[in-house]
């Protein structure tokens, strides 16, 4: 087979860029955890000693780190003054922890994927699953952090108002179940916005439930939020006005069974809020950066967990609206609507009839 030298060089360049990005993720983690980005945010041009002093770190390490950041385009380098600057846009992504595009903690997810490589190799060879609770603990904190600020930005202001009659119920006092709630950020965000409603978060992973309870206490909403250990087919079916699935249904082994159980747990005229990773219905339409991220995570995390449970449907993180709608149709629901979308999420409204 004859090799096209130009195509070879182009692909080597692409692969080396990806390798450099992996190295860069380590640098981002250090910059976040050591407060280096926060030390630079809003400060204008700084030399390496000034960044070191502001962050309490050793200058020689900081200087090398700054050069790695400048080489990757994560800070500006001013050659004339030998100074480094974090722009306002870079600060939104790297230093502002309340920003909807704050990303450093998300690097904990690929770290966990590397740590679990032996489990993934075995799963590929045997076809067996890997339960969510079997992963490196950085997966839990990284996933929660990746989604938290997006929920904080969109959930109350855009997603809930897009559902028919739901916001009014929440304002007057509704019963809400957040199934697969993880660290509870989505539950807490709703509880902060709607103090007359009551919220129950259900999660099968005990450590995540403990984290959610702690987060509720810190947020001052523990009086109207309760977190419990339960699966998606065993939580109390207590007539909820709203049942939410945030970025979790595709992970479940039996999504149709989960949807059937949710139907039994809904109040009359209750609503399902389904938030899933953004995906088009066809593979060829997902061959982009977001699709690459989600397909990779889905390979070793989402499909792996589903295959660890009964049925093992393994929808995957790129299921798309048509397949998700089919899940609820099979469960006996009759009304489906794409309510909103972001670059990272699909938001669907589902009702029984």
Overall description:
This protein is of the alpha/beta class and 353 residues long. The protein folds into two domains: 5-96, Winged helix-like DNA-binding domain superfamily/Winged helix DNA-binding domain (Arc Repressor Mutant, subunit A), CATH 1.10.10; 106-351, Rossmann fold (3-Layer(aba) Sandwich), CATH 3.40.50.150. It has helices at residues 5-33, 36-40, 48-55, 59-72, 88-94, 108-115, 117-126, 138-159, 166-172, 185-193, 206-219, 255-265, 289-308, 320-330; strands at residues 76-78, 83-85, 175-179, 198-203, 225-229, 240-246, 266-277, 335-341, 345-351. The strands form two sheets. The protein has a seven-stranded mixed sheet, sandwiched between helices. α1 packs across α4 (59-72), α3 (48-55) packs across α4 (59-72) and α6 (108-115) packs antiparallel against α8 (138-159). The longest helix has 29 residues, at 5-33. It is globular, with a radius of gyration of 22 Å. The mean pLDDT is 97.
